[in-house]
Amino acid sequence: MVGRRALRWRESEAAIDQAEPVICPLCERPIPPRAQQSLHHLLPKLKGGARGMTVRLHQICHSAIHARYSEAEIALRLTDIEALRDDPEIARFVAWVRTKPDDFHAPTRMTLGRRAAKREH
């Protein structure tokens, strides 16, 4: 006999498998249901965007933004997808990640420039 909790888990797993993938607005690749993903606040929460607009991104795309820019920089000039895509650093990342499978993920390190700037403050 299968318990109710196990049955609900199987049903939710089946729903995930059948769900239509969302498209990552940054890299424009599908986000498969089981891929690592997260919500990105277009205006950082620390800069007043806690209740603002969010977009679902691949986790690697989200991490790439925050590895390169501080909350202040994002709030100042990178508050929409077009601005992010037009940024040279992000554009290089997007060109690279588009060659990877839709569910690709790798740890993302803070860039050297961002680390140096963080140490100065």
TrEMBL record:
<protein>
    <recommendedName>
        <fullName>Restriction endonuclease</fullName>
    </recommendedName>
</protein>
